[in-house]
Amino acid sequence: MRILYRLLGFIVGVGILLSCLVLFHGGWGIWQFSQLTGAFIGGFITLFAIRSSSRSTEPVEPWLGKEQLGWTLIGCGAIMWGIGECFWRYYVLVLHQSPFPSWADVGYSALPVLVFIGLLLQPSLNKANNRPFIILDSLIAMGSLLAIGWALLLGSLATASSEDLLAKMLGLYYPTSDIALLSIVIFLLLRAQGAYDNVKARRYGLLILGLGLSVFAVSDFLFNVQQNLGTYIDGTWVDLGWPLGLLIVGAAASLRRFFPLSPEEDRAKHIDVADTAQSRLGLRNLAIYVLVAILFFVLCLNIFSSDPAKIQQRPVLVLSVLIIVALVVVRQILTIMENNRLADRQAYVLGQLAQANQRMEEQARMIAQRNADLERGITHLKEVHAQLANGNMRARVQINSGDLLPLAGSFNLMADRLSRNDQADTYLRRQTKLLNDLSSALERHQADQPLAISSS
What we know:
This protein is mainly α.
């Protein structure tokens, strides 16, 4: 936890210093290197946090699947953007040029690709069928936002600009990639949550990462707009979004790596998460339908407009709407298939539950019957025991089956032995009486009395 506080404190201090340098143009021109400084610091902090080894006794959330590789790609994307900024500063400060496009765009354009792949590698442990819905929702949201942006701003910039084809493509690529990054972050956060997704380290990391990308995207979008309009000025508040956004990315990686687990989260890691129905109307589905509704509204405004610029933008807008509608149809088909699968599974589970209830009822009936037999057997044993105690040695237990059968056999064996002992005792008493009578007769005979033997 101490290293987390140190990293966050360092990031906050660097962010404040860079903000002061950019806003007040301090440091004898050092402020011009604030963007690449923030990019390199954010990227290297990300790589340090993600690639640092963890001890087995350290109470942190372990890496899942390709999550560590995803965060590594995000850190590499920040460093690539910093390399592109180095080329840009070389053009501006040494060559006194502002070329667009240039070699700097190689580094700039690498960041969205690497970060997007890194976000797709973030784990989703609910079920494997959740990932197609996340990808479809991200594509629908991204396409809707791009179509809306094309109708409101990007189309006008693309058609009115006098730049070459590569410059136009890059001018559209940067805001498009920003929208793609923000959409995938939003849907990663709005996906169906399970015990693994609710771990604070992972959730806080994604939240802060989304905040950093949002700050970065705002500066990127404003720069592209001003660059196309020819009104961009270096060293304004617009430039703060790039270094601060990438520093926040480093803070997100630090939180993901070093945020400690609570005991409740540690226990929740071993819980099996139940399958979640994808057709449930949640925030993600609501966001999708709201974006599609806004897109149709924008399309209607474009169709009823007689502005030549709007008419020129209309083919791209209509094609985008058709593609998005096709994606929505595919999503609905997948949703219906998922609902059918869940319904079949529910019917199977209900059938298994009915069979289990039937087995439980049969077991309860058998247990009740067994208890009744035991009670009758115990009562019978008590009666036979009382008869034996009262001298009725012929009393026997009449049990032919059941759990008390071994006890009944032992009880009857004991009764037989008692009966034989009683018979032997009676015979012994008779023999003793006979010997006593014979001894008395012999004694009288020795006393000159006649020998009189008794009938015994």
